[in-house]
Specification:
Layout: H1 3-14, E1 17-18, E2 25-26, H2 39-60, H3 62-81
Antiparallel strand pairs: 1-2
Helix pairs in contact: 2-3
Length: 82
Amino acid sequence: MDLTKLEKILSDESGNKFCPICATPFKPRNSRQKTCGSAECKRQYHNEYVRQYKKQQREEFPEFVREQSRLAMRKMRARRKD
C-alpha cells in the first residue's frame, strides 16, 4: 500500500493530518493549517511555498520578473552609493 493512501485512511478515521515536513501526525486547529505548528516546519513550508510561487511567476511572466529585478537592483545600488 502506498504511504499517501495509508496517511489518508488514518487521517480520515482520526481527524488528524500529517505534517508534510516532519511527517508527525497532528490535529489541525483550523482547516487551513498545513504543518504541525513547530517553528522549523512552518519556516520550511513557507520557504518551499515561496520557491514554487517564484518559479511559477518566472515561467508565466518572464519580462515582468526581469523588470522587477532590475528595479530592485537599481534601488539597492542607490542605497549602497549613499
